[in-house]
Amino acid sequence: MSSLTYLIENIETFIIDPLIILLFVLALLLFFFGLAKFILNTSGGNEEGKKEGKQHMLWGIIGIFIMVSVYGILKILTNTFGIPF
Predict the structure, then answer these.
(1) Which of 43, 54, 56, 63 is the most exposed place for a label (fewest CB within 10 A)?
(2) Residue 50: how many CA atoms within 13 Å on its side-chain side?
(3) Distance CA 4, CA 19 (A)
(4) Where are the domains of the chain?
(5) Separation between Cα atoms, residue 42 and residue 36, nearest integer Å
(6) Burial class (CB within 10 angstroms; exposed 0-12, middle 13-18, buried 19+) of 47
(7) Whole-angstrom Cα distance, residue 55 to residue 50?
(8) Distance between CA atoms of residues 74 and 51, nearest Å
(9) What is the pTM of this model?
(10) Separation CA 36–CA 85 (nearest Å)
(11) Percent of the chain beyond pLDDT 70?
(12) Taking residues 28-36, what's their average pLDDT?
């Protein structure tokens, strides 16, 4: 195994993978926070709270989509260049 492959594997294993997981979890938490805010403000009739809840859910979904896309792109790149993932 060349030193460049070893370096790329270590960067991926110790930096990129945990970062992707962290950002995915944060996006998921943002989505659930927005969902809770939307549900709680629906019964109270607070339109501003419902609007904020919808916005949080939208940005949470966008964040989840981006993290899944980044993971997929990394998977394609590492398989193309023969780097174990």
Answers:
(1) 43
(2) 8
(3) 21
(4) 3-78
(5) 10
(6) exposed
(7) 9
(8) 35
(9) 0.81
(10) 36
(11) 96
(12) 96
Q: Are 55 and 37 in contact (CB under 8 A)?
A: no
Token representation of residue 53: 């809840």
As a whole number of angstroms, the distance between CA 79 and CA 74 comes to 8
pLDDT at 84 over 70: no
**Residue 14 tokens, joined:** 């110790």
Angle at which helices 47-80 and 17-44 pack, to 10 degrees? 160
Q: Are the C-beta atoms of residues 23 and 67 closer than 8 Å to each other?
A: yes
Residue 70, both tokens: 């980044």
**Three-state helix/strand/coil letters over the chain:** CCHHHHHHHHHHHHHHHHHHHHHHHHHHHHHHHHHHHHHHHHHHCCHHHHHHHHHHHHHHHHHHHHHHHHHHHHHHHHHHCCCCC
